Amino acid sequence: MNSDWKRRTALRVSTALGVAVALDAVRSARERGRALPLPRKVIALAPGSAAPRQGSAGLMQLCAHPDDDLYFMNPDLQLAIRAGADVTSVYLAAGEADGRNADTRDPQRRKTPVDFPGYAEARQNGLRAAYADMATGDRRSPWRREVVQVTPNVMVERDILLAAPRVRIYFFSTRIAAQREAGILHGPTSAQRLRLLWNGVESTLSTLVTRDSPLSRSQQWTRQDLIDALAVLLKQHQPTVVHTMDPDPEHASYSATRGVTSSDHQDHTATAEFALAALAVHRAETGAAPLVVPFRAYANTSWPANLSEQEYAQKLALLSVYGGAVPDCTDGMCGDRQVFDGAASRGYGQSIWPRYELGADWLRRDRDGRLWAFVVRNGGVSIRTQSQRDSADWSGPVDVPTNLPGAVIMPSLAVAEDGEGRIHLVALARTASASRGHVRVQVVLCSQEEPGGAFGPWTSLGNPQGHTQTQALTREVGTPVAAFDSSGMLHVFVRNFAHGVSFANRPPGGSWGGWHDLKGRDVQDALTAFTRADGGVELIAPTRTGILRWSQAAPGQPLGPTVRLDVPPPASPVTMTESAAQEFTLLYREAGTAQVMSLALPRSGSAEFTLKPVGEGGHGGTGPIAAVTTDDGTFLAHRNLHGNVAWRSAGGDSGAPWTDTDQFLVHAPVAALDAGGRICVAVVGLDGGIHLSQQSGSRPVPGLTPWRAL
Q: Are strands 584-589 and 575-578 parallel, antiparallel or unpaired?
């Protein structure tokens, strides 16, 4: 019997018992919108009343349009729903487009009457159907639609899935087509209302009342109204994880005269700005520090597909439900007919890429043998520390002090240790001004004042494009990576605006010498810096067409010329390992299958060497691979297609089986050796906490201990 069918049947049975009476009462309301009769009263939110219980998982998504998460945040959304998370999704824009609910491939679609409230309603109907399918296995499962007063100035629609009340949707329905209706069809202000509100070009924007909405009138909101309302929802639901859009997407084109053309929809970018502003208010008012995961959107078309065929097929099936491409959709209001069954033709659903990859090195053992874990939470860095070597007790969390007024530490972090045992953190700090949308992004460094001690203030290393004084160029800086060589020189690398690599370094006892260009082309934002056993530094950069490598001939010297590895492009960041015999291996995911690949590398300057990637299996999934090399081999762990940890023992060869665990994780797992030489694996769960498992028994690794929350 098909396991997916059994899962869906079990979900239907388990939910039916608890809601049988309610389902009987609303059976007649299952058509068109799957909605109960409209409520007659407005519900006032009581912030904090819906707070998840201690230790539970709460996911909130802050999106622009009613399909952004289905395209750009799935399968992570679906996995969170299956894992039982409390899920709240918020959509700022009505997404009424041209008001024609007809297939974009239909040559006769221009004859379809324009109906902005109707098309926006159809999109919402399709979204409710997709969510019901994810949560219950029945896309026709009914919803309750109601009006909530979020702030004195903001009322929105809230929809609650009756069979799974932990799943809810908020529609703000801000208009994007108002100026088209007024006959303004050209120019930069023809449709991007969220962007104009964020940038201060427009002082207010209006909302659209969809066809069957419980809301009775349109509203006018200011920039601050939107920020305040989102902050109230964050306080109300207290999510442990927040998904949102990319605030600084990569460019599609650039010229000195015309400037930057973004690869992304400007509603997406503005939504990310509003989300970050609301999260800052949330932290200031409550101290809450959820994990924040911004996702790339249209830029996915530029990079290798990182979903397996199975994951992609599941995503397309849900998008077809959203598009109303289902047998019994006869009235045209079941979903978004502009998508219908053509989601695959858009080219950006075959991947899910976080804008800021946390990486696979955030668990670090210090010189005293204690383990340290570093996680970025809502604009700050949180640290947990093993109380003493080999101890089961951990201290913290402790926040790294912030000395950058108004700055937010973005969810990327490079961790490096110098020869004296001090740990150094490198990150991106982003400061958004309320004036005309000005944004400053800088690479920043924070260091321990002494081994095992407190961290000092953040120091700015500037920006590779800082000399241009053009914020559109500086905003696109990539996720930093860092490594020390044995001479004591610290190397920091980032992808630059031209999609090459820039670096800055600091010699021991010296100062930073500015940014320099390592060149490179079509580099993915997934660099890897690695310190070899001989003290030299390696840099690995996946590209659209392969992998680039730079090697330091000796510590203290410049990195050598670019070496292009003629292999298919990776679909994940690359992990580098070195064996006791000083043999190098790269670990990454294969595009189109998501399986783990290993690639043996020659030492820099070696004679002819045949590059031959080897498939290692791994049960699909996304993100980088965690690896620890021991005398018995290499231990591997990663996030599989179910969102859980999969691992393979250090003693196994390339044909060794993978073991799946039931530990769900948000970021990629990390692995390190503790003071006793045992392999430790750490993950960040949906509850926002760090969970740890250790090697059980003697080598080669026979298993891992049960997961425990730190």
A: antiparallel
